[in-house]
Write a structure and sequence with these properties.
alpha/beta, Nucleotidyltransferase, domain 5, 3-stranded antiparallel beta sheet, about 15% strand, about 400 residues, globular, 2 domains
Length: about 400
């Protein structure tokens, strides 16, 4: 029995469990014993429930702490707060005496509506009637609970609109923010889209800062990208990784783009001929815009322009991303944060600052930035193409 934070599991889920035991006539100390130190519930028949912290910690990114478990089944409360990798590792531990007892491995997960893997893996496939046979999704609203307090329901009705839509109405499509650039359906499709085959090859790289962020390198064939990432690599090591990848995949140096802000400049200096990406630099304008002011776009900087160009391809389903489950989860979370800043302003167009995103999700949107930079090459090609008009 797990949750993202063990303390909350004990304060909430476990208390509900004790209430159910009382309803069933089970007595503490006789029918079961709770060991708060070990986090175990041991029953008279010697079956045991383990209480587990499923949170993500930098010291254990692969969830090795779960690796030695041998369990017969699992329950995750508030699964929307748990990363997909944790759920996958836990599911792989359901193996204890299954054949001996003739048991089919099962995992029960409960959650509130959320725009992450529970949406893309369960809600959306159920809605589209494509849910795999080994899975089921059951919608349950607060009104379905006969034991709920009417005062609790009234409080839910008073919540702000988005929270009310999620928690009272059970609405998974609750986020109606007109400023966001990418819809969750579109983000989910990135990992199942089939990009047009292409011989044009590129590399985009976002370089880690201050040791905490990730260095993300993406190899592209057209609009199909394979993501790799590293931590705690020196600029020299990263430069060598990029040059080796370019050599192996025969990527022209002029089609490599590297985040030049901060320590990325140290990598760029070691790859002569690669392109540097400066987030705050001027937006790319077409050749005709030099002669006709009306053809100039209104983007405040290059990063914003690339973000909106990426929006076009994402909406069209043209981008295909190949990555691990962990990266899929992180990238989806990052893309949900990309929004237009001051949407009602009549001035230049900008997206929200990176500092605001870091405050919301606790880290830099490294995976998104590496994908976004790929749009530089698309914009440069468009800028060369002549515009034709007729009357």
């Amino acid at each position: 029995m797990g949750r993202a934070v063990l303390k909350r599991l004990k304060e909430t889920t476990l208390n509900t469990f004790f209430e159910v035991c009382i309803m069933w006539g089970l007595k503490a100390g006789e029918d079961y014993k709770y060991n708060a130190v070990d986090g175990t519930l041991t029953f008279a028949n010697r079956s045991v429930i383990l209480l587990k912290d499923l949170g993500h910690y930098p010291s254990d990114p692969e969830y090795d702490a779960l690796g030695s478990l041998e369990i017969t089944g699992a329950f995750i409360d508030e699964a929307n707060e748990v990363r997909l990798k944790a759920k996958s590792v836990l599911a792989s531990r359901i193996r204890y005496k299954l054949d001996f007892f003739g048991i089919t491995p099962k995992m029960l997960m409960t959650c509130n509506p959320a725009k992450n893997w529970v949406y893309s893996d369960f809600y959306k496939p159920k809605k589209n009637k494509t849910l795999p046979k080994h899975r089921e999704f059951i919608q349950a609203l607060v009104q379905d609970n006969p034991f709920i307090s009417p005062h609790y329901i009234e409080n839910l009705k008073k919540l702000p609109k988005n929270s009310r839509e999620r928690l009272y109405y059970g609405n998974w499509e609750y986020d109606d923010d007109p400023a966001k650039l990418y819809e969750m359906d579109e983000i989910s499709d990135l990992f199942t889209n089939k990009a047009v085959k292409s011989d044009n090859k590129f590399i985009s790289a976002d370089i880690a800062r201050f040791g905490a962020d990730k260095t993300v390198i993406i190899f592209w064939r057209g609009l199909k990208g394979w993501i790799k990432y590293f931590t705690k690599k020196s600029t020299k090591e990263v430069a060598e990784i990029i040059k080796e990848l370019a050599g192996d995949e025969q990527v022209r140096i002029s089609r490599i783009i590297i985040d030049e802000d901060g320590v990325g400049g140290g990598v760029l200096d070691q790859i002569d001929g690669a392109k540097g990406f400066l987030n705050g630099s001027r937006a790319i304008q077409s050749d005709e815009a030099d002669e006709d002011e009306t053809l100039k776009n209104n983007y405040g900087n290059l990063k914003t322009q690339c973000a909106f160009k990426l929006q076009e391809f994402v909406k069209a389903g043209s981008i295909e991303i190949v990555c691990s489950e962990e990266v899929r989860d992180l990238l989806s979370e990052e893309m949900e944060q990309i929004k237009e800043r001051d949407i009602d302003s009549e001035g230049k167009i900008y997206i929200v600052k990176k500092s605001e995103i870091k405050e919301n999700i606790g880290r830099s949107p490294d995976f998104y930035d590496a994908i976004m930079m790929r749009m530089y090459f698309e914009l440069k090609e468009e800028a060369k193409a002549p515009n034709f008009a007729s009357d």
